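Support case: SN-glycerol-3-phosphate complex. Customer-provided input:
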Amino acid sequence: MKLYLDTANVEEIRQAADWGVISGVTTNPSLAAKEDDDFTKILPSICELVNGPVSAEVIALDHEGMIKEARKLAGIHKHVVVKIPITPDGMQAVKTLSSEGIKVNVTLIFSANQALLAARAGAAYVSPFLGRLDDIGHTGVALVRDIVDIIDLHELNTEVIAASIRHTEHVPAVALAGAHIATMPFKVLKQMFKHPLTDLGIESFINDWKKADKSFK
Ligand code: G3P
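Agent response - structure generated as follows:
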């Protein structure tokens, strides 16, 4: 399972890219709205930092508007993947865009049926939002598992991006469920490094080395 960062913040992306652990980035209009600069200015910088797909979402809700915005976004950088919500107009846009070779990530997926529709329309990626499902008392990880099983069983050419990840426990859970990608906030990515025994282990290794008064020769 690949790890993506779910943010439009260039500094967070730069840091995670320097660590060498991320394979892509996802954004959405809410994340882009948090940044000071205009998104069309930020997007090329994000694409240069990441050696992989960068999802950028359309705002239009009608298929003609979506297609127009999608072509514009895709023209900004070769890493851009266009994000389109799961609606009938959205799928009409996916059909056209995928036939032009523009990759689409179908977003706001909350059911296996929605994922199946998106895959059939030609989506390169589907993004089930597990955290938002957990918020309303459902089990987001179970949906991710169902979608992965359906895609495998029917040999569909679509990758599953587990999105709306809220905490570190979600990450191994979606990896075991077979998600191809997990996209997460920077805070969760940083927490993945953490274990108290790692901190204690580093401290005792350094102390033992110092006590023995050794040095690298
Ligand atoms: O980018 C889509 C998704 O990851 C949003 O997450 O936390 O707003 O539900 P969240």
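The chain has eleven helices and eight strands.

Case will auto-close in a few days if no follow-up is received.
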